Amino acid sequence: GFDSKIMRNCGKIKWKKTKLDRMMDKLVIIIFLVLLVTSLCLAVASGFWAKTFQEKHSYLSALYKHTTPAQQAFFNFWGFTILLSIIIPMSMYITFEFIYLVNSFFINWDLEMYYADKDIPAKARSTSLNDQLGQIEYIFSDKTGTLTQNVMSFKKCCINGTIYGNFGWMHICGDSGGSGLSWSHQGEKKKLDFHDTTLLEAAQRDNDPVLREFLRLMALCHTVMVEEKGDQLVYQAASPDEEALVLAARSLGYVFLSRTQDTITTSELGVKRIYKVLAMLDFNSDRKRMSVLVRDPQGRIRLYTKGADTVILERVQRQGPHETSTEMALDRFAEETLRTLCLASKEVGEVEYRVWSRRHHEASVLLQDRAQELDKLYEEMEQNLQLLGVTAIEDKLQDGVPETIQLLKLGNIKVWVLTGDKQETAMNIGYACKLLTDDMEILEEKEIRLGVYCHQLSSNLFSHSEILEAYWESNNNLSASGEPLCSGHLSQQHPEPSHQKKRALIISGDFLDKILHKGEVLKEEKRQLWRKLACFRAGGKKKPQNSLVEKAFVDLATSCQAVICCRVTPKQKALIVQLVKKHKRAITLAIGDGANDVNMIKTADIGVGISGLEGMQAVQCSDYALAQFSYLQRLLLVHGRWGYLRICKFLRYFFYKTFAGLLAQVWFAFHSGFTAQPLFEGWFLALYNIFYTAYPVVSVGLLEQDVSAKKSLEFPELYVVGQRDELFNYRVFSITFLHGLTTSLSSFYIALWAFQDHVGSRTVGDYESFAVTVATSALLSVLMEIILDTKFWTVFSFLMVSASLLLFCLFSFLTQSFDAFRIAPVIFHFPGASRNALTDPYVLLVVLLSLVVNTIPSLTIRLYSSIMGKTTIQQKIHLKARRQPEPSVELRAHIPRGSFHRRSSYAFSHQQGYAGLITRGDSLRTKVTRATTPHPLHPGTSSALSS
Amino acid sequence: MKTRTNCSPQEEETRPSRCPDNSAFKQQKLPAWKPRLTLASVLSSFFLIGAFCLTVGICLILSANSVREIQIDYTDECSDCSKLRENSSNWNKECHCSINFTLKEDMLGDVFMYYGLQNFYQNHRRYVISRSDAQLLGRKVNIQKSYCAPFTTYRNGTPMAPCGAIANSMFNVPLLKTGNAWWTDKNVKFRNPKSYNLSSAFAGKYGTARPPYWWKPVYLLDEDDERNNGYVNDDLIIWMRVSAFATFRNLYRRVSRIRQFAKGLPAGNYTFHISYNFPVTKFRGRKRVILSTVVWSGGRNPFLGIAYVVTGAAATLTGFIITAIHLKLRVKKTYFQKQ
What we know:
- Chain A: One of its GO terms (biological process) is Golgi organization.
- The complex is a heterodimer.
- By secondary structure, chain A is of the alpha/beta class.
- In chain A, 53% of the residues lie in helices and 13% in strands.
- By secondary structure, chain B is an alpha+beta fold.
């Protein structure tokens, strides 16, 4: 119902508008106001003129007989308002929507974003956000199902010091390789990327006891439930890691067949064995390991343990070379961003077990401190283990995720991962997808807390601490390195900002809660300080503490290269997005696939839904639906950038052509005694925006490309232009306005001066010829500008430009034909004006002159800027290509890391107590009911958190 | 990723695939010409434009200089008449003044005579619309509905022909005559009402009357020539074609090339006899008569020629400056490359 956790977390639906859209609205309002003011001024002037006209100009005085100057001014005000209202680009909105729509279709049509495996094309569900795709600064990504496929696969292992599975990504599974293993099923194919015939053969030979124990452990030590569907075994695991291990064991011949409350049945190389489960030493986040104590069919008792390397290695018997080689294997696996687990076992003596069992029983019925007692007992049991080996599981990333993130990072887009997962898991993924690199300094909660506190303190108390200094230092570094970026010398940036410390921030939901909501708590803590301070600083500024903390946090977070938030709720995800939007005024994009991302998707400026496994809810709320995370690079770097470029060019040109064409009206008012006499023929005014000038700019808005899609992806730096609003902002608008103003001035005054004392056999500066001349010069200048502006000439562009000219001729011919005049002399009152004027060589020369005068400055500026190499992308590309012959995407997975971090992750998402359920038999009893549901909700997994 | 971009054909057979079309338009891979502003092309176009503009400009200046033009401002000479006429009670009193001028050189070729008015707002909004095109087309229309007001009808209901402020204020200096109006105007825009003769057409049963400022009714504008009388009178037509500016010239007459004027207007002393109708002193207007020959580019107005020369010079100069900048930069670049 609506009170469910998911619905409560959903957030509100908001009407999303792009930054440019909002700016356009503002500009239109500004234009409208300017128009009103202009009309008012002209009207006032007309009022003064009315007086002279009435008194002195005898031929006009009769017209003023019944009106006072004030009335004249009033009428003229409306006259001018109506006359100039054409400058308000209303048709722009319609054209704008059309361009948005077609650009959205381009996204839908893109084959590179079509996911053939599932037959899902990209879908632009919102058709009015395209340009903002080119301005993204922050991406908030979900992890599971977005970055990863949510499929764990067993990649490698190291048994007794020997590494298996080195042969990479051979997509063959045990089924085809191991012909003798009839229990392997087709269904495994997707789950197992592991294939190493040497391991398979070794397993088949069955002569290495360590290997045997290793595989046995994989089949025994877990909490997976099994179901038989027909002849297939279906495993249901609380965590995909465990499932991957069990599946790997199965394909190597050690099949986990069934489980009862206290037995586990396996089939080892075709031999069925039943193990009696004596105890399950459960996992919890402190222990970071789980063990199972079994009695094998021979009656021996063995303890099988798997867990994080740090904990297991402490409890292992030191025994020389194997251990060191295993540790080296661990390091290597970790470098390859695999999730590692150490497996160990030992034999337990009968007597020892008895004693332990009794104590265990006692402890498990304790009423107080049971957990601690049990932990202590487990600790006692898990000692002196024999290290069997290491498994390496890949949390399989979606295709192209690291490359995509790398590209986005190069495009100056910051990627934040917001996940419900545990910190270790999130970090692992962060490393795997190159979000975190080893040269980064990772800030965790404690350091941040200090940092934020100190930041806050510094603003109040001027106290200093090391972290604070470090934080400021980092800030300064960033701004220092940010400067060359801002000045547009992309290519001249330091090849590797090695001197600058890269930082990554990793925080948890609880911590966020503290920062975001418990500003009150901080306030409480501060209050005493404040009181003390009050003595010294009477009436000191009272900053709102809460927002100060928020601000400090956001500042810190945004100064980091990467941010990972783990254990966050859907609401917190949205809150983080909101925070960044609020404090950074940046355009944000949220990408996710599940219901838990809905809130974030709705909050962000642009929400992208991955149409994947977790249902359609995210897609329903999103603005864009993609099938893969990696398509994001194309969506942003290609479609977004083009979209932004197109819309900006469109806006700039549209404003320009409106001003250039129609401002001449204002100048004419100065020469007609401010009487609102229209300069242009009514038909020209009516058709100017729709038929004469709209088409070329539409073709620019639809098809313009500055660089090809391939180049866009090769040079993600080009994306920065959009983030800085470089192509259309108030400055560009003012320049455009001035440009339009000059064009209108020159085309008006060239015609005026040319006609003023002109004598000739035909045109003698009459109103009609003048109107036609100014209109033609303005129109041609405006068309010339779009010809210069278009950088991508397709057939359509040619057609559109020629269509404009043809339509101009056609409509001039039609509206100025004699027949039309005879039918309605008042409506078609320019009969033959164009023909008369434009056949006079003098008029043609006037038109040509104003065309040249208008074009040369624009051409000069373009050429100048291309010589100086400040704005042209082409040059940047050339420069960069020269400097960086190797691909810009650095794949450094196999370069040994400078600072060593081993990232073993016992990253099972289940929590403590699950083993208890098994041993009690609860889950087995409900198995029948569960069998009907495909994805059972396991106790302990919090479904609201993304797992 | 590359393998996925192609939709396998068998998939499309099994079920309607949602795979987008692989057309050049949809994939935004239309063949396109990507012009780049190269230095060479732009510079050459600059020099070309410059050369072209300079040539045109010089031609224009030369041809403008070949024009012989003489302007006779008779505002001051006829100020007495003007004062007389300003008093509206004297509207029907004739006033003549004569201006003598000397032509020092022959004016060869067709000599056109213009009248020039200054500070006369023919482009005034309400003035411009104060006409009835339908009436001038010779149609019987109710001019009450047109914008002609207040020059529509007299008190007794007799409509004015032609109506409106433009016609009313017609600047008339009775002089020679010829066909100077545009063909369009003469044959399309202005038509006399159909009748067996003009006077009956205008004065007949549904009679019209002359506008208040006029001397004579419209059907007496040119009694000698039927085709130049009534609404199709050249003077009326040219006057009705309003000017775009407050200072303007209208073609008035062409000197008939007969007898001693066959080659144009020979040098000598001439006198204009002007019957002064139209007072301009009050709004500080000026009245002029202009005699001018006409070449292909019109008259003596030097503006266009000068503007072309300036533009051409500017374009060439810009070309040189850009070349200079480029050369300087190239030196710098090679310097850096050597380093």
